[in-house]
Amino acid sequence: MKVTCLGTGTMGSITRGSQSILVDDDILVDVGSGVVKKIEAMQIYTKKLNYLLITHAHADHFVDIPNLLIGRSVRKENKETLKIICGKGIKEKTIKLFELCFADGNKDKYKNFEENYNVKFIELDNEETYEDKEVKITVYDLEHGTCKPMLGFTIEKKGKIIGYATDTTLCKNVKKICEKSNYAFIDATNTVPTRMHMGVEEVEYLAKEYPNTKIYAIHRSDYIHNHIKTIEFPEDGDIINL
Asked: What is the spatial distance between Cα 223 and Cα 220, in angstroms, rounded to a whole number?
């Protein structure tokens, strides 16, 4: 397995793109502003995508979904159904975003949205699971102010489990994700925690609490950090072989 770090940044970051990872070539996690151009610049062809995981509907995690789906359609890379794993209401928000950007006043343009773009929305609640012969994905409610749904994930594939928890404070489900995962990609927006985000010191705590889990600090603003030996600090474009 491999993880490609398409972006490792947060809102306001100048040196890093919007947070997004690609697991192998078929699982994309988050598709915020600028992610699609990063994918195209890296010559990653989206016809290999089978799953899109969306944590929440903030712009730096969600707003590029029209560019992703339309690009796949234009290039005829959407012959296989893209399964969109997300929280309740994300399908409705996606269609509203398409209507805002591309409907041109035609209210009926997106009546058959899933069929037109060959996607299937799978909206899950806390600790519900989607599973097929390729992968097992479980969603977890996280805490990010009043933002709902706000999800983290565990992705089980090829006998390994990858955890993903970004845009969150330190809550019980972040700990649960770390406990269950072999590798965990965890919010480290600031050097210290805030009411909306985790800080590096909390990520360091998790690394000590779960020594059998390799932890990567992601969703980082432009702070200068120390290279803590128990944590990895990936950069945009890094490819991590697991």
From this structure: 8
Q: What is the DSSP string of 20-55?
A: EEEETTTEEE---TTHHHHHHHTT--GGG--EEE--
Which letter, b or e, does each residue of 95-104 get, where b requires 16 or more Cβ atoms within 10 Å of its Cβ?
Answer: bebbbeeeee
For residue 95, CA distances in Å to 51, 98, 103 come to 18, 5, 10
**pTM for the predicted model, two decimal places:** 0.96
Q: How far is 25 from 47, CA to CA, in rounded Å? A: 9
Q: How distant, in Å, are the alpha carbons of 14, 177, 217 from that of 152?
A: 25, 8, 15
Q: Please name the residues in contact with 155: beta carbons below 8 A apart, sequence gap of 6 or more.
A: 23, 27, 29, 53, 135, 136, 137, 161, 162, 163, 164
Assess contact for 132 and 48: CB atoms under 8 A: no
Quick: pLDDT tens for 192-213: 999 999 999 999 999 999 999 9
